[in-house]
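Troubleshooting log. The previous structure file for this entry was overwritten by mistake, so regenerating from the original sequence record. Sequence copied from the archived sheet and checked twice against the printout by T.R.
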Amino acid sequence: MTETTLFEDANWPRAGRWPSADSLGASERADVGVIGVPTWRTSLSATGGHATPAAVRTALQRYGTFAAGVSWPSVVDFGDVVEPDGDGEAEAIAAVRRAVSACGLVIALGGDNALTYSVALGAYGDSLADAGLITIDAHHDLRDGVSNGSAVRRLLESGLDGRRVAQLGIADFANSEFYDRRAFDAGITIVRRDDFEEWTIGDIAKQALDVAGSAGGPIHVDVDVDACDRAVAPACPASIPGGLSAHQLRRTVRLLASDPRVVSIDIAEVDATRDAPDGRTVRLAGLVVLEAIAGFASR
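Regenerated output below.
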């Protein structure tokens, strides 16, 4: 996609032009913090996901900060974690923990889905025993090993209680019976793709929050954009035709982010180097960031 110079209007403030978190004083806090966690090295599909945080920051500037009924909160940018895969996971966990200590909500820009492990652990801090997880994803991410397909399994093995995990948008023909059974055996609540046509998004979000927040601990939300229809998310290697609509994803994220128990959100599986010429997937990821901020502002 060829970038053009953006028209400037003093009466139309643009999103994404947020100060560095370094601008915060020692005792100062911001409402929302953005951090890049560009995981990619262990992806099961070839990906250039490490280019995505920068692409999303650029795409954000195409949007304004006005949303009806929303008083825009303060937002700061913590920059990117360097090499967050492998041995770098410890630094990613520490970086997210620092961001959570300074903000009411942290939004992590991936990267592939491997970031969910580091971001969630960093956000939970010492509260893993009471924590909850909500994923919006076509896949269970319960595979063995270390990859973008194993983050949820690794969190369970670290001590996250599967009875406080809700997975939204799980798709037919995108999983296996083995991993579906693994999710069931772990006590995970599964909301399948078709359920989004039968239930209201409000009911889906409420059920997920009730499950993940049942022990009163912090909730992390993993937004895997490949839950969406491939027509709106062609830059997600594993997106399939017939997934969630862009509106369904955006609305679900805003409702989840409106709950004060949600302390962190990650946005995963967008490969900015493989997007459509119009940049539609990266632009959708940018809108997910804005929906999360708007949800936080409604608390």
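The chain has one domain: 29-143+152-297. Archived copy saved in two places this time.
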